[in-house]
Specification:
single chain, 138 residues, mainly beta, Beta-clip-like, 3-stranded antiparallel β-sheet, 1 helix, globular, binds S-adenosylmethionine, binds zinc ion
């Protein structure tokens, strides 16, 4: 069984960026592993199909794991699925084997919203709300 519990104290709360977000309940040191992005492992072909359905509702849930596989957080996901995108984020992702780790890109203060860069390059067609005046399309 994969661990789904976060390694740091975090919680889901209403976000100022979009919908739900995830917040640090304690200071987190740069490079710490915070939580992994859980979700069913599926093929790219299956992901294409599901992602089209999810995007109709404005949601991105599929995270590319490698050349063959994607993780779908809409099925078997954990709190990591509520982490929002920011163009200048405080977290980064690291793939180790078949795990997608969310790690601190810098020291994070208690109460900060956790964010990482989705790196979707406009594929989802969602206007980024990470800061006033951001012109990125996620
Ligand atoms: C992985 S979910 C994150 C959790 C989401 N906020 C929620 O309430 O379910 C990704 C979705 O959050 C929204 N989102 C995340 N970051 C965003 C951003 N910077 N600007 C606009 N929408 C964002 C988009 O709707 C995106 O499809
Ligand atoms: Zn942005």
């Amino acid at each position: 069984m994969e661990p789904t519990a976060p390694l740091k104290a975090i919680e889901r709360r209403k976000s100022k960026i979009a919908g739900w977000g995830v917040y640090a309940l304690e200071p987190i040191t740069k490079n710490s592993r915070i939580v992994h992005y859980a979700g069913e492992k599926i093929s790219w072909k299956e992901s294409d199909k599901r992602e089209k359905r999810y995007l109709k509702q404005g949601c991105i849930w599929c995270f590319i794991l490698n050349r063959k596989t994607v993780r779908d957080a809409a099925v078997g996901g954990n709190i990591a699925r509520f982490i929002n995108h920011r163009c200048r984020p405080n977290c980064y992702t690291q793939i180790v084997g078949d795990m997608i780790w969310i790690r601190a890109a810098r020291n994070i203060r208690k109460g900060e919203e956790l964010t990482y860069n989705y790196e979707t390059e406009g594929g989802a067609g969602i206007a980024c709300l990470c800061r006033p005046g951001c012109t990125t399309v996620i």
